[in-house]
Amino acid sequence: MTTLHLPLPRLAEATAPGEPILEVENLTKSFGGRTVLDGVDFTLARGSVVAFLGANGSGKSTTLKCVMGLETPEAGSIRLAGIELSALRGTELARARSSVAMVFQKIHLVPRRTALENVCAGALGRLGGPASISPMFFPRELKEEAMAALARVGMADRAHEKAGRLSGGQAQRVAVARALCQRASVLLADEPVSALDPRAAEEVMALLAELAHEENLAVAAVLHQPDLALRHADTVIGLIDGRIEYSGHISGLDASMQARLYTPNRAAA
Ligand SMILES: Nc1ncnc2c1ncn2[C@@H]1O[C@H](COP(=O)(O)OP(=O)(O)OP(=O)(O)O)[C@@H](O)[C@H]1O
């Protein structure tokens, strides 16, 4: 019998919507001497969806990777709930980062594990002991929380299906449920719908927006389709060559802004 105690399932913390949770200032990154992020500033607020748009290579993924610690910026500040991440080390940093979840275009589920087991894995960062070794030892409370998360994304009826047998759209929903089971406050989605057909893409984006608004998550999604951003995002950050060209309400993403963001040879334009 496990002695692990999990709090009651709770998909959102009692924080006011609109409150900034992630504040990024002057993010600067280069690869091989070439600057790919040049002083990027933005804020993510709970209860809203920010779409990151821009042409290939404009720096969208690198921005999210810097926030996740998958890339190290040369300069800049990343504050999560007011805490500067670069000042943290070891378990403190891991704990802070555990409130940020990421979903990717290539959905990282373990195909031979069930949807439920994959969702439970979202909690591994806070579980110790046998549960971190095998799903056999997942505590009952965790499975209940994972089932609640699967129900939240409309996948409860597929809980015991092997992840490898799910469609792309279903698998992405399970990945989102795993982020909920992680109890993340911030969800960074790097091209979450690029591998999905138009209907599944629409559904997954609608789900992300619903979770942002109803569960008080801060969602940032890198998208290649301005239309999806217009339908599901509250604000947009448009990047050109590693600099922010536009940051503001989604209504600013008009035809001329879209043309600017996607114009080839922008430096010459
Ligand atoms: N690990 C790396 N090593 C070298 N260059 C990199 C690396 N990662 C990204 N880059 C370069 O940094 C720039 C920004 O890349 P990034 O992937 O952030 O752009 P993006 O806007 O997400 O592009 P896409 O829409 O094509 O995914 C590109 O020129 C890319 O080639």
UniProtKB/TrEMBL annotation:
SUPFAM superfamilies linked to this entry: P-loop containing nucleoside triphosphate hydrolases
SMART domains, sorted: AAA
ABC transporter domain segment(s): 22-266
Keyword ATP-binding: yes
Keywords: ATP-binding, Nucleotide-binding, Transport
Short name of any one Pfam family annotated for the protein: ABC_tran
GO molecular function, one term: ATP binding
InterPro entries to which the protein is assigned, alphabetical: AAA+_ATPase, ABC_transporter-like_ATP-bd, ABC_transporter-like_CS, MetN_ABC_transporter-like, P-loop_NTPase
Alphabetized PANTHER family for the sequence: AMINO ACID IMPORT ATP-BINDING PROTEIN
Protein name, entry field: Phosphonate transport system ATP-binding protein
Organism listed in the record: Paeniglutamicibacter psychrophenolicus
